[in-house]
Task: inverse folding
């Protein structure tokens, strides 16, 4: 008999009021407006873990939807992924109240500097004991580029070429900065790390 297949169950959410169920926020029992509360997210993480979910994927977007009628008005009125907070900042809080739940976050390579992002994701890797994943995107909204002081979004193929370079740099930072055995943690000799291996 072939081995039984196991389903991997992930929840999908966003650190905002109106993720993909636009307008649901207006329902009397909806609590999505609590997205600004860490307790909202830690309660969700506990619930997902009790329900035997494998992970929580958090989408993100930089910029606003301003294409319809050349305006952001509908996006604001209906809370279409706006306002939206940074999903990365939720993860350590949710990881602290769970033991097995994994976390995937969307981070845009066009807006995060490689070194600082490598540092942030490494910190989350440590704080979650390896329960972090990254959805790599390059963005597509002109409004995001303009919010960052650019005149518009970089052309698609150029963004992906830049993302390849970004990934190469991240791998060098993650895999080439500290050799295996660099951390000695030798209290007697007062050597935390071997400089020759960093």
Result:
């Amino acid at each position: 008999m072939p081995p039984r297949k196991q389903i991997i169950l992930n929840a999908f959410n966003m650190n905002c009021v109106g993720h993909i169920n636009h307008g649901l926020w207006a329902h009397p029992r909806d609590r999505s407006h609590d997205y600004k509360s860490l307790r909202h997210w830690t309660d969700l993480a506990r619930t997902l873990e009790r329900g035997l979910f494998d992970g929580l994927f958090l989408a993100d977007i930089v910029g606003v939807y301003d294409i319809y009628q050349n305006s952001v008005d509908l996006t604001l009125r209906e809370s279409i992924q706006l306002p939206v907070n940074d999903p990365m900042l939720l993860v350590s809080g949710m990881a602290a109240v769970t033991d097995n739940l994994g976390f995937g976050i969307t981070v845009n390579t066009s807006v995060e500097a490689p070194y600082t992002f490598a540092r942030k994701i490494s910190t989350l890797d440590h704080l979650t004991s390896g329960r972090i994943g990254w959805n790599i995107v390059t963005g597509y909204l002109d409004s995001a580029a303009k919010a960052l002081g650019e005149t518009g979004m970089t052309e698609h193929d150029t963004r992906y070429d830049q993302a390849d370079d970004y990934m190469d740099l991240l791998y060098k930072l993650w895999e080439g900065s500290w050799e295996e055995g660099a951390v000695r943690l030798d209290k007697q000799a007062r050597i935390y790390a071997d400089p020759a291996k960093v």
